[in-house]
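Researcher: We plan to redesign the surface later, but first we want a full-length starting point. Tokens attached.
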């Protein structure tokens, strides 16, 4: 009997790897510790609300989205290309933060960014857009590398504009309010925001791994089976040893480090507070950025404005994203107080549907960032996950696919 390839972990990387192996006719199984697929991309259903395990979005410009998915079947609902920046308790609508370099010029012509930026910021944005728009995104990941905060200073942005706009926007995406993440990640994320939308599937982010899992034959994924140790030819689970033709470790970085050693992977933590409201505090599909450092939330989204199924009829779901924060009852109340400063006493009547604290939201991507790390180790064990590429959905999917390709060529050799 032939031994299967054993993939450890059913997050996006493990699933992408398994789908590609299956497509190539290679026998494989997936062994997952938790009770479901998706890893960091899962959606819970609570009292009729859809709660992603932490606020997150799919960027429609990610190449692997188009390569690996039936995009129409995901029924993506896009945020409007714009944001509300809250400063001093007042909203300023900015035409297009996700594509800021392109559209801020028109925004400024309408006089709407006076409260958050200066003409020099607009020139810096225009220059940035010009620089980012031509190179292939992969080349941006090979550009000069320094902390994002230094990069923004060098690009000529004012301290006020960075604080009011770029820090909540970019820090929210990179789960890094300190802006110490590699400028290569900043460049590539800005490029993705220039080229496409931020979106969520109508049925929640969990629809993304669910689509991959649906391509695998029944019985190929084994849930609730934490892998205790691995070797080149077998993995050990509580019920015994599973022999393998090849082993792929597709867990998050710190767990991969525990199982097979190698590079230590740091963590960016993130919290999320979900509130239920009878009325939406904003009526558009815009992300709301915390332009003052006036509380733990860096950005807030009314999910039910973007994708109505996120809340039961007549109700709204407000997601407050808290990068760098572990949620406690104090942080929930600090978040409520921050949002009260924005939207008044009605926030007091909002119910907390649930909260999430994710210790390892993304790998630490401080400088020096080396994406596209090898997926085949010297000891013959294969490894994939966002820590091998970039800390993103794109990075996880890409690493999973190239790992499957490496396994296939190893088996064929
Ligand atoms: C709140 C939040 C917001 C984010 N926002 C965005 C965003 O807006 N856009 C974006 O592109 N990315 C975002 N990300 C990052 C993105 O979700 C991740 O980069 C990606 O999902 C990582 O996938 P992965 O397969 O590499 O790892 P994981 O999803 O962590 O999958 C690893 C899997 O391995 C399993 N596992 C671990 N140990 C074992 C073991 N011993 N045995 C068996 N199984 C094991 C785990 O249970 C898990 O299922 C966000 C992440 C979080 C948490």
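Model: Full-length starting sequence:
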């Amino acid at each position: 009997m032939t031994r299967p390839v054993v993939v450890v972990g059913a997050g996006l990387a493990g699933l992408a790897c398994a789908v590609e192996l299956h497509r190539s006719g290679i026998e494989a199984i997936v062994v997952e510790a938790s009770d479901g697929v998706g890893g960091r991309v899962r959606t819970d259903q609570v009292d009729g609300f859809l709660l992603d395990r932490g606020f997150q979005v799919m960027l429609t410009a990610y190449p692997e989205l188009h390569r690996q998915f039936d995009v129409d079947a995901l029924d993506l609902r896009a945020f409007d290309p714009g944001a509300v920046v809250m400063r001093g308790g007042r909203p300023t609508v900015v035409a297009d933060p996700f594509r800021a370099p392109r559209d801020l010029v028109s925004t400024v012509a309408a006089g709407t960014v006076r409260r958050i930026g200066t003409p020099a910021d607009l020139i810096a944005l225009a220059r940035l857009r010009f620089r980012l728009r031509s190179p292939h995104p992969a080349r941006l990941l090979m550009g000069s590398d320094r902390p994002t905060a230094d990069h923004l200073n060098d690009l000529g942005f004012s301290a006020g504009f960075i604080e009011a706009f770029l820090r909540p926007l970019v820090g929210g995406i990179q789960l890094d309010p300190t802006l110490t993440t590699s400028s290569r990640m900043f460049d590539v994320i800005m490029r993705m925001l220039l080229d496409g939308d931020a979106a969520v599937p109508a049925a929640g982010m969990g629809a993304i791994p669910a689509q991959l899992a649906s391509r695998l034959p029944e019985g190929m994924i084994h849930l609730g089976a934490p892998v205790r140790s691995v070797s080149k030819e077998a993995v050990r689970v509580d019920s015994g040893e599973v022999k393998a033709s090849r082993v792929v470790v597709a867990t998050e970085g710190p767990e991969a480090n525990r199982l097979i050693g190698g590079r230590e992977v740091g963590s960016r933590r993130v919290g999320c507070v979900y509130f239920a409201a009878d009325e939406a505090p904003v009526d558009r599909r815009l992300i709301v950025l915390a332009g003052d450092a006036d509380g733990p939330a860096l950005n807030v989204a009314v999910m039910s404005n973007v994708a109505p199924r996120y809340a039961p009829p007549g109700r709204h779901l407000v997601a407050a994203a808290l990068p760098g924060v572990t949620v406690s009852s104090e942080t929930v109340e600090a978040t409520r107080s921050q949002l009260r400063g924005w939207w008044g006493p009605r926030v007091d009547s909002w119910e907390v549907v649930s909260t999430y604290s994710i210790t390892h939201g993304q790998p630490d991507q401080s400088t020096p960032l080396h994406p596209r790390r090898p997926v085949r180790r010297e000891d013959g064990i294969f490894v994939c996950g966002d820590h091998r590429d970039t800390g993103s959905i794109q990075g996880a999917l890409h690493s999973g696919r190239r790992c499957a390709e490496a396994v296939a060529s190893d088996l064929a050799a």
